[in-house]
Amino acid sequence: MTESGGNRFVDLFRRIVPDSFVFAIVLTIICAVLAAVTVRATPIRIISGWYEGFWTLLEFGMQMILILVTGYAIALTPQANRLIERIAKVIKSPSKVYVFVTIIGTLFGFVSWGWVVITAVLARKLAEKVSGVNYLYLTAIVYLSSNGWVSGLSSSIPLVLNTDGNFLIETGILSAKIPISMTLGSPLNIAMIAFYLVVPPVLIYALRPGPDDSSEIGSLKDDDGAVREASIEEEAAGQNLPYKALSDSLNNSSVLSLILVAMGAVYIFYYFGTRGFDLNLNIMIFTFLVFGLLLHRTPMRYVIAMKRACSNISGIVFQYPFYAGIMGIMIHTGLGAAIGTAMASNASLYTYPLYSYAAGAIVNFAIPSAGGEYAVLAPSLVSALKEMAAGLSAGEQTAMIAKASLSVAYGETVTNLLQPFFFLTIVPVMCAGVKVAVRDVMGYLFVPFTIYVVVQCILITFVPV
């Protein structure tokens, strides 16, 4: 794609993509109208579902905030800064920065989607140290790199299917859980992992924009966006009283931090020793917190690091309930189930992966959670698949369900590239103190989105599980 072509997409998205909160308002209205027209939901049922949904993602929203700020606090340690300094000595050109961030972000995403915050911190530091980096393009790269999480260890839908007594088993739709070997370990997902490792770096390199001084981070900083001159250690020391005090001794006590670190380390080793490599948001947040305490050494330094890490999380705090409200409309009016049924009823033994992919992609705009979306779509989708495959063996039926579920997951994730909501995961890092908005970045993702859809449709159609 030529640079002028890329600029056309950037300009187009700047004109049409609103703030993520406005996007939520528009989606709320659209879902309410669809619920009234397609499933004949009454106004009070729609509004009640909206209200009930408001509170369903509070735990998840808090988990997202904590994984972001605890990860960011680690990145603010002197050790992390020295590592980034070493990387910057090797990676001296914008092109190398773009490719490196794409690859490292993809690898982090395979561990957990929450590690996007580490990618964001690394990318921002590199942008400050390597001249000529287009910061808007780099922000888009950070967001794009996290897309591979769906094939990794924290992929929600495969983990749900592998859970004893999951909701599909409880409702009698499935008789047993589906092991990870049939989802994350399947040939289809291995092929998808290869796709995420090979295609994005090539795309990012091919689509890189030319030099533009106005898009460098230094040119985009607000008047108040200058980096603090004082380090965390200097700020902590500056809060001490001019005379010896017990309060200062406690605030700057490494012993107190080490006690908590020791307690946390014991549990972390116990957890993985008894459960294996069973990653979830809670244990990741806890590990980040313990590791951050260890690296910052004293309670006061960690307090200051967390204060800086929490400086720009307002979007997540107040917008999550609104997106959860959209999810409530989808669930409580039956609109989500109706979409799943419509998709499944038109599918065949050959096209069901594509219909599942499309269902995941469409519903993702309204439900900001892979697990929540699957809870809406799976009952009707899996039931229809079982009827469709009635003449097949139990193993073949299970393989179809696994493939359809993976297809939903891939579809759910790919439209994140057009959905500004999950952009909030990197806002606290990439947009703090700089003039960068979602609409400035999304245009860079349109071409990758198109290529992702084409390749993924081919893979889910022809590669088995």
Number of domains: 1
Low-confidence stretches: none
Q: Using DSSP, what is the number of strands?
A: 0
Order of helices and strands: HHHHHHHHHHHHHHHHHHHHHHHHH
Approximate helicity band: 55-70%
Q: Helix/strand-derived class?
A: mainly alpha
- What percent strand? under 5%
If helices are DSSP runs of H or I spanning 4 or more residues, what is the number of helices? 25
What is the CA-based Rg, rounded? 23 Å
Mean pLDDT: 87
Question: How many strands, what sense, and barrel or not for the largest sheet?
Answer: none
Q: Separation of termini? A: 34 Å
Task: Using the alpha-carbon principal axes, give the shape.
Answer: globular
Topology of helices and strands:
Layout: H1 3-16, H2 20-38, H3 43-53, H4 58-75, H5 78-90, H6 94-111, H7 116-129, H8 135-145, H9 156-161, H10 167-170, H11 187-207, H12 217-220, H13 232-238, H14 246-251, H15 254-275, H16 281-296, H17 299-309, H18 314-332, H19 335-345, H20 352-363, H21 370-388, H22 394-414, H23 427-430, H24 438-441, H25 446-462
Helix pairs in contact: 2-3, 2-18, 3-18, 4-7, 4-16, 4-17, 4-18, 5-7, 6-7, 6-8, 6-11, 7-8, 11-25, 13-17, 15-16, 19-20, 19-21, 20-21, 20-22, 21-22, 22-25
